Amino acid sequence: MHIDLLNPTSFASGQPHDQFRWLREHAPVHWHDEPGGRGFWAVTRYDDVWTVDRDFQAYSSEPTIMISDPAAESSTFGRYKMMLMMDPPDHAAFRKLIRGEFTLPAAKLREERIKALARQIVDAVVDKGECDFVEQVAGEMPSFVIAELLGLPLDDGRELYKLTEVIHTAPEAQPPGAVGQAVAKMFEYGSGVMAAKRAKPGDDLASRLLAAEVDGRRLDDMEFLLFFLLLIDAGGDTTRNLLAGGLLALIQNPDQHRWLMEDIPGRLAPAREELLRYVSPVIYMRRTAKHDTVLDGRNIREGDKVVMYFGAANRDPAHFERPEALDLARPAKEHLAFGAGAHNCLGQHIARIEIDAMLVEVLTRMKDFELAAPVEWLASNFISGPKHMPIRFRRAE
């Protein structure tokens, strides 16, 4: 088996489950060469991913969660780090600044507004009989929700989402410098938000971040901009890619689609969790060994890169029965689509509400889905999801 988890062509039709299957069976902690880099350990079994993600004392999120070492990033951000690239206690202190906005009670307060947005999004396409499901449906919801959270115009949320696509696309799959230019545009927009909210604070997350304190001091400009980038960037990944990848899975598994349609209110929650497991929108996160340790019998040296593959872990037969099958009635068992440790997805409660609202609107108001053209997947080894998914459908009467 040829293993290549760096080249985006390995992910050209979704996650490379054939490679993941071989690795789980033969080399669950596998040394992966890295052209131009020092290589990394690819971790593919559920229990090992769980261990690495939760043990921040052995496996650090610093200096980066990306496989590539941060030479280019450090020249952009200087001494600053994004919250995702911090360890406790710094990570906990920064996470606390926004945690209150993403608790389950806080997310539930937004549920009716999110349902209204879902109706608005489907209203715009339901009579057309066709659409690009990613651009016109799946991508709209998280763009709108994060825009409202930050006190931004909804249309601006859509434009910022386009920048996140560039940021997540592999550099070799786009013009030179495209990622850096997208980050610069995000910072330029964020600087405008910062100036506007400082001049006239509102009842929104951006204003509250600018008024918040860490260790008795306010965030400086770059700290705010990195928070802004993180919220826009991470705010759309799971929902957008779960909705698009999830609808594709239902089209490909019509028996599961029929089962869900028999009782959407009663079956939606387990179906959503199974789609999260099956799709696994975030492909990997990297950690760096803080000291020599052993993982599944392999000697991990201090400074080694250790990369957790969530899509592989979520199809581990040691943890899930018939893991390759989409089974919307699957008994609840903890998947790793949102991570497991201190860095588990802060926005998971609001993401679940967004997913539920969109699935209800899409599945009850649209029917007879079929692909109108081949799916184009995002050229990325970090985020898994369709970039374009043209579909045809009929309005459900």
Automatic annotation (TrEMBL):
CDD domains reported for this sequence: CYP142-like
Entry keyword set: Heme, Iron, Metal-binding, Monooxygenase, Oxidoreductase
Domain of life: Bacteria
Keyword Ribosomal protein in record: no
SUPFAM superfamilies on file: Cytochrome P450
UniProt xrefs under InterPro entries: Cyt_P450, Cyt_P450_B, Cyt_P450_CS, Cyt_P450_sf
Protein family according to the UniProt entry: Belongs to the cytochrome P450 family.
Protein name: Cytochrome P450
